[in-house]
């Protein structure tokens, strides 16, 4: 028996605009309920929608980043259903002419390879509000979120494991954050995932396809992976118990994810499915994309994370892991790139950024370019390490000082006596003193054998300590070897 | 004062000969005297209007600049949102709804220094041809109070005909300005779709709805159109001035169009149920134009016969969606003691909507339903394109088209309430114009043997309201139909 998991993902991405999709209300879901509302997003009689151009630009940029073709002519459609959080009882969306289609995304798999996931389409729509049920015996509706711009991205069913689903979700988050189309904050619900899942089970000459189940509204990467894995298990178990568990005999289901019990729960079957009665929204004119305008957007796209990662590997000689870490977000990638472009060695900048910069950024919960150290300063610091002016332990100290002190790394190094001493005459005095004070170690070294390297290290350490870390370890080592072997 | 046209009154106010406050007071006096019998007004805003009139009078006496309507008292159909009073759409559902904002046309009226005195009755949500579908009150035709004023802007037309004010605004989705203007013997202009902002106009059929004036004369319609026309960035379907500038509709009004070519479609005179008196009056009007040097040209409108069917798919489909928001959850009528949240919807709508509104919601919902969409809605859109093409082809040969506005004169109340199809045919001449988006005007062209007014419809190409008004004015200047008003 051969079992293949088939998953397609629908992803809703909240776009990082200042205002809502069809009116001028501020985006602020956490504000007191119903404070960011107006006649348009309240669905008042006589109100009319007007397109938010910035939302369209964000969508075009995202679609381009997903290698989609941008449709030259698109329109808006009304999707009708009744729900208290939907003020007009229809949602403005795009039905048969989405703003973009037919793209792909290459996702990295654990073995260093990538897998191409095709994108079916991406379209713009407005979000609904929120129903609150807080034990009042009645429900309340908060329409702050109603009308906020959403990009819905639909993949082809090219995903074949729960892990791949999680990776795609994470990569997509990285991408939309990188191009600034969305804040991609999972905690704030900026991204919601809905996997469509089934199994193709081959037994002998027969292939059984289990009925497609859609898990609604997953808002964490863990939930995506968990729900898909659970469904994979459940489908197989259901089919084993009853071979009629196939799509020819059972309808599509919508299911929800119970994050506490870690299982999916049945929500509704086909008989309860809506007839959305899509039709073109007569209040909005179709969008006709001007070629010049599209080229303008393309030209301001900048380099995407995948291309940047490739360049860091090929041009800067980074390994795959470092390149991935350094292209994790746009601020880090640009910061690193700028430092290298300022003439510093990529390897040294990598060490500074990954060892000091990112840990401080993480600690402070800010982007790398917000920690208070500039990429120019890091470039200078890397050059000081490279030419032997400072050693690596001094580099860490200088980096930390730069967070709070003004000045270039060199002046900070001077101020705090962190300049490396490479002058042999100055170091010889210290070395002689150390040799005189540690006869036992000197003898052990000279005796050779197992103890020798340890003794050498000890003596070296003593010199470093006496020089307050300023001695150039390489120079001291050479001197030491010359004296003891001489 | 009620003998004056809106333009004359406006000029006298602007010149300080008549005070806006006195004109406004005169309107309220007339309403008090007449509205009881006619029922044209759903609400009046006396205190607010007199205050506004006083402000304008002060501006005028100070020699300050005033807007183009300079203190003219006017009334609007009650489907235009205004932050004074209520916006009911003559529906029980919105009976107590206070709009929190002013629509585009209302804003324009305010900017033009009009004094809005109140809001007029209509068919509920503008769905109807007789104003009998009002959920709130009846409106009688001032020429014969046993008859309907037409609809859906019946209140707006009756208010002008009964001289309760000098001009009103109506809205026209399938004839709702022109047909009641015809029934009440006044002038009704539906501008080109996109000419007047729909922002704040409570939507019925969004791709068809257009606000326009109902007045005593063609010139008054030009004055009003000039005040309300123009681009509104809150209405994506309103047309930018760069594409179609708002014109001075009065500048050349009195200049006849030289070598006028009038298209006459035989389809318009082969309609079943065309009242012979109406046909006769319209033919006399055509003859008069001929005598002024115009040429009558036969044109063909082969798809026009599908207009009513097409309209009742497109308009009802849009309406079914536009009216979905009246759900008892957010504003308006909410049923008492609902069983569950589904019942909030169904009972609130059941109680809040009248029969015709429900009928059209059902029709539209059906037309958009999965499996029927292609056969009904999509096909209707295609026929709509063909109808538009018919007009465009005709306008390659002629300057305008002329027809009756309605196949008959005002009918008796109750005559058609049991037969919606018969009612729908009342708009047979006007509906195609909305489907095509073009401007159309109805002007009085005679009275029948029962002393009831007959309307002549003139249709012209998109954004040629200036020419349309000039053509209409040619007739008006040679006739006295526009000076006839019902006896008090």
Question: Can you tell me about this structure?
Answer:
The complex is a heterodimer of chains A (about 475) and B (about 500). Chain A has about 475 residues and is α+β, with helices and mostly antiparallel strands. Chain A contains 15 helices and 17 strands. Chain A has three domains: about 1-290, no CATH class; about 305-415, no CATH class; about 425-485, Arc Repressor Mutant, subunit A (Orthogonal Bundle), CATH 1.10.10.410. In chain A, strands 1, 2, 6, 7, 10, 11, 12, 13, 14 and 15 form a ten-stranded mixed beta sheet that branches. Chain A is elongated, with a radius of gyration of 30 Å. Chain B contains 16 helices and eleven strands. The mean pLDDT of chain B is about 95. Chain B starts with 5 loop residues before the first helix and ends in a 10-residue tail after the last helix. Chains A and B meet through loops of A and helix 10 of B.
């Amino acid at each position: 028996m051969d079992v293949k998991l088939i998953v397609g993902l629908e992803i809703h991405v909240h776009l990082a605009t200042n205002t809502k999709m069809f009116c001028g209300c501020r985006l602020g879901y956490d504000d007191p309920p119903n404070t960011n509302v107006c006649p348009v997003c309240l669905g008042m009689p006589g109100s009319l929608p007007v397109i938010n151009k910035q939302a369209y630009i964000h969508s075009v940029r995202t679609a381009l980043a997903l290698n989609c073709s941008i449709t030259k002519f698109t329109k808006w459609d009304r999707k009708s259903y009744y729900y208290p959080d939907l003020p007009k009882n229809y949602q403005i969306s795009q039905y048969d002419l989405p703003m973009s289609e037919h793209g792909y995304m290459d996702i990295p798999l654990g073995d260093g390879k990538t897998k191409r996931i095709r994108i079916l389409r991406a379209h713009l729509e407005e979000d609904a509000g929120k129903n609150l049920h807080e034990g009042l015996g009645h429900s309340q509706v908060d329409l702050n979120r109603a009308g906020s711009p959403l990009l819905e991205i639909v993949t082809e069913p090219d995903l074949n494991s729960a892990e791949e689903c999680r990776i795609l979700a994470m990569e997509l988050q990285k991408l939309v954050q990188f191009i600034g189309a969305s804040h991609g904050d999972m905690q704030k619900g900026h991204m919601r995932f809905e996997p469509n899942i089934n199994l193709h089970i081959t037994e002998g000459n027969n292939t059984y396809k289990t009925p497609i189940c859609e898990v609604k509204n997953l808002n964490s990467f863990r939930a995506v992976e968990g729900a898909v894995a659970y469904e994979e298990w459940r489908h197989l178990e259901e089919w084993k118990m009853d071979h009629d568990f196939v799509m020819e005999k059972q309808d599509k289901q919508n299911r929800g994810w119970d994050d506490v019990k870690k299982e999916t729960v049945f929500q509704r079957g086909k008989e309860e499915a809506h007839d959305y009665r899509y039709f073109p929204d007569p209040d909005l004119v179709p969008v006709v994309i001007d070629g010049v305008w599209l080229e303008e957007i393309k030209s301001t796209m900048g380099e995407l994370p995948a291309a940047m990662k490739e360049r860091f590997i090929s041009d800067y000689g980074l390994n795959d892991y470092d390149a991935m870490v350094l292209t994790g977000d746009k601020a880090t990638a640009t910061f690193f790139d700028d430092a290298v472009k300022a003439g510093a060695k990529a390897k040294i900048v990598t060490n500074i950024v990954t060892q000091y910069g990112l840990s401080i950024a993480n600690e402070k919960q800010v982007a790398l370019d917000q920690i208070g150290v500039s990429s120019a300063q890091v470039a200078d610091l890397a050059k000081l390490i490279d030419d032997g002016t400072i050693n690596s332990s001094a580099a860490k100290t200088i980096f930390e000082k730069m967070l709070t002190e003004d000045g270039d790394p060199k002046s900070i190094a001077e101020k705090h006596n962190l300049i490396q001493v490479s002058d042999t005459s100055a170091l010889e005095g210290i070395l002689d003193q150390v040799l005189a004070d540690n006869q036992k170690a000197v003898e052990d070294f000279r005796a050779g054998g197992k103890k020798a390297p340890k003794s050498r290290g000890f003596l070296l350490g003593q010199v470093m300590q006496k020089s307050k870390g300023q001695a150039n370890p390489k120079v001291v080592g050479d001197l030491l070897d010359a004296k003891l072997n001489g | 004062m009620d003998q004056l046209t809106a333009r004359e009154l406006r000029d006298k106010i602007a010149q300080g000969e008549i005070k806006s406050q006195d004109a406004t007071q005169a309107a309220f006096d007339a309403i008090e005297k007449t509205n009881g019998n006619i029922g044209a007004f759903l609400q009046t805003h006396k205190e607010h209007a007199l205050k506004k009139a006083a402000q304008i009078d002060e501006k005028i006496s100070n020699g300050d600049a005033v807007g183009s309507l300079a203190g003219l008292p006017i009334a609007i159909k009650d489907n235009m949102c205004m932050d004074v009073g209520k916006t009911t759409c003559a529906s029980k559902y919105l009976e107590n709804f206070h709009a929190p904002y002013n629509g585009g046309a209302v804003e324009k009226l305010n900017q033009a220094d009009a004094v809005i005195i109140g809001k007029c009755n209509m068919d509920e949500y503008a769905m109807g041809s007789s104003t009998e579908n009002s959920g709130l009150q009846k409106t009688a035709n001032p020429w014969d109070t046993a008859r309907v004023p037409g609809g859906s802007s019946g209140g707006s037309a009756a208010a002008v005909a009964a001289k309760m004010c000098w001009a009103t605004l109506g809205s026209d989705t399938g004839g709702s300005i022109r047909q009641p203007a015809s029934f009440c013997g006044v002038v009704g202009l539906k501008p080109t779709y996109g000419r007047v902002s729909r922002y704040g106009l409570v939507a019925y059929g969004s791709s068809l709805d257009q606000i326009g004036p109902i007045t005593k004369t063609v010139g008054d319609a030009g004055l009003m159109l000039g005040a309300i026309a123009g681009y509104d960035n809150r209405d994506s379907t309103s047309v930018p001035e760069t594409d179609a500038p708002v014109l001075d509709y009065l500048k050349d009004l009195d200049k006849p169009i030289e070598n006028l070519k009038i298209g006459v479609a035989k389809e318009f005179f082969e309609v079943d149920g065309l009242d012979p008196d109406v046909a006769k009056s319209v033919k006399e009007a055509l003859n008069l134009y001929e005598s002024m040097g115009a040429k009558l040209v036969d044109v063909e409108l082969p798809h026009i016969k599908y207009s009513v069917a097409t309209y009742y798919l497109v308009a009802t489909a849009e309406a079914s969606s536009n009216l979905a928001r009246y759900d008892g959850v957010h504003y308006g009528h909410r049923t008492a003691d609902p069983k569950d949240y589904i019942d909030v919807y169904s009972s609130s709508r059941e109680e809040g909507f009248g029969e015709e509104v429900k009928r059209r919601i059902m029709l539209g919902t059906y037309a958009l339903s999965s499996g029927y969409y292609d056969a009904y809605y999509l096909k209707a859109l295609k026929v709509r394109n063909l109808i538009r093409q018919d007009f465009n082809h005709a306008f390659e040969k002629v300057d305008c088209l002329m027809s009756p506005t309605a196949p008959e004169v005002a009918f008796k109340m109750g005559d058609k309430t049991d037969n919606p199809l018969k009612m729908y045919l009342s708009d047979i001449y006007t509906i195609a114009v909305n489907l095509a988006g073009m401007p159309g005007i109805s002007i009085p062209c005679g009275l029948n043997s029962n002393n009831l007014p007959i309307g002549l419809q003139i249709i012209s190409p998109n954004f040629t309201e200036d020419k349309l008004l000039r053509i209409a004015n040619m007739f008006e200047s040679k006739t006295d139909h526009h000076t006839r008003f019902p006896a008090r």
